[in-house]
Structures are given as C-alpha cells and as structure tokens.
C-alpha cells in the first residue's frame, strides 16, 4: 500500500528514481513519516488490498467446494520497479532473484 501511494505521489516513477533518498532506501523512520504524509492514498491502497484478499478467499473457498484446485505461479523474474524489490532489495540483483 505504501509503495503504491509513493508511486502515485512520485508520478509513477520507478522507486530507484524517487527524489527522496530516505524513502527510496527505506531508512529508519521514513516509511512511517511517508505513511502519515500520504495517509489518504495509503489507506485507499490498504482498502483495495483488503477487498482483493477477501474476494480471493471467497473465490478459493467456492472453487474448493466444487472440487477445483487453484494453483499459482512463482515469478522467475521480479521487476526491479516492484514493491518486492523495493522492500527487500538484498534478495534481488537488477530485478532478478539473488542466488546465494
């Protein structure tokens, strides 16, 4: 939710180009400060995520009742400009999973 609020605030620029180094590098205190600064968008994206997960749980339960299994996929490459790469950069090398 914070990632998307920040993306919107910074005109959808990749996180590697955000002008505020503190939030770009997730320095201590920066996330909380930006959550407050972008409270309206942050809450909007949290609500959207809540709706998605509620709908997903309902869909999965319905499918299971019908004997249908739902499987997902594991991305081989994660885009550099993603919430995952921003939140956990130590696991990625230029958008690819780090090996070892």
Low-pLDDT runs of 5+ residues are: none
Tally of helical segments: 5
Strand content: under 5%
| Number of E-state strands | 2
Along the chain, the helix and strand elements come as HHHHHEE
Quaternary structure type: single chain
Q: Could you tell me the radius of gyration in angstroms?
A: 17 Å
The percent of residues in helical segments reads: 40-55%
Strand order, biggest sheet? 1-2
Could you explain how this protein is built, in words?
Helix content is 52%, strand content 4%. The chain has 100 residues and is mainly α. Helix 1 (2-9) crosses helix 4 (39-65). Strand 1 and strand 2 (96-97) form a beta hairpin. The mean pLDDT is 90. It has five helices and two strands, in the order H-H-H-H-H-E-E. It has a two-stranded antiparallel ribbon with strand order 1-2. It is globular.
How would the blueprint of this fold be written?
Blueprint: H1 2-9, H2 21-24, H3 30-37, H4 39-65, H5 83-87, E1 92-93, E2 96-97
Antiparallel strand pairs: 1-2
Helix pairs in contact: 1-4
Offer a concise description of the structure.
With 100 residues, the chain is mainly alpha-helical.
Give short descriptive properties of this protein.
100 residues, 5 helices, globular, mainly alpha
């Amino acid at each position: 939710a914070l990632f998307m609020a920040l993306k919107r605030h910074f005109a959808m620029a990749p996180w590697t180009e955000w002008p505020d180094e503190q939030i770009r590098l997730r320095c201590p205190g920066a996330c909380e400060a930006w959550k407050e600064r972008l409270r309206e968008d942050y809450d909007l994206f949290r609500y959207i995520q809540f709706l998605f997960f509620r709908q997903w749980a309902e869909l999965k339960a319905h499918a299971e009742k019908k004997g249908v299994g739902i499987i997902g996929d594991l991305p081989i490459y994660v885009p550099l400009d993603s919430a995952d790469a921003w939140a956990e950069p130590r696991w990625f090398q230029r958008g690819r999973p780090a090996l070892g």
